[in-house]
Amino acid sequence: LCAILVAGAAIPLALSCLLRLRMLEHGAGLVLIPLVAAFMSDTMALFGGMLFGKTKLAPVVSPKKTREGAVSGLVGGMVGMVLYRIIFFLCTEVPLHIGWCVLLGLVGAVLGQLGDLSFSCVKRQYGIKDYGRLLPGHGGVLDRFDSVIFAAPVIWMIVNAVALY
User: Fold this and answer.
1) Are 75 and 42 in contact (CB under 8 A)?
2) What would the mean pLDDT of 127-156 be, rounded to a whole number?
3) Closest to 46 measured CA to CA, from 75, 20, 25, 19
4) pLDDT band with cut points at 50, 70 and 90 for residue 76
5) pLDDT, position 140
6) How far apart (Å, rounded) are the C-alpha atoms in residues 138 and 122?
């Protein structure tokens, strides 16, 4: 019961940070930061793990995840944000600070991986394989956004605290 109450409050509050990002100046572009960092991290972790993965990261929680995949995910988050910076500039002519973009990519990737592992822990505890069938091959919408749930609030705080441009 307590887990349901916490999830019922924490997930919407975390995702509301996407709306908070959207409400900032250039928010239509800034709202993509947690999505780019988390999704690029997820994607590169998958491919890096498939190509180089040998050492299990957390075999009890998520048996297919590897340390090599996790490192690839961190690189993917940072590279994704550098690419995002280029596209953001082409669309807005606003140059984002490269250092902050790389940091946001790293933070988004780290928190995204923590979110992914945390939700995997919950799934193991309750004997659930996927959170839904809406996105075949992705494990459901919550499986796709578990990384964003952890990354969005911290990225929103960083974007509010520093001058990105």
Assistant:
1) no
2) 76
3) 75
4) very high
5) 59
6) 17
- As a residue count, the chain comes to 165
Query: Residue 66 is encoded by which pair of tokens?
Result: 């590897």
Helices 32-52 and 98-126: crossing angle, nearest 10°? 70
**What share of the chain has pLDDT > 90, as a percent?**
73
Full-model pTM: 0.89
Q: Which residue has the tokens 């988050």?
A: 77
**Euclidean distance between CA atoms 139 and 141, whole angstroms:** 7
Which pLDDT band holds residue 35 (cuts at 50, 70, 90)? Answer: very high
The three-point CA angle 165-77-138 to 5° equals 130
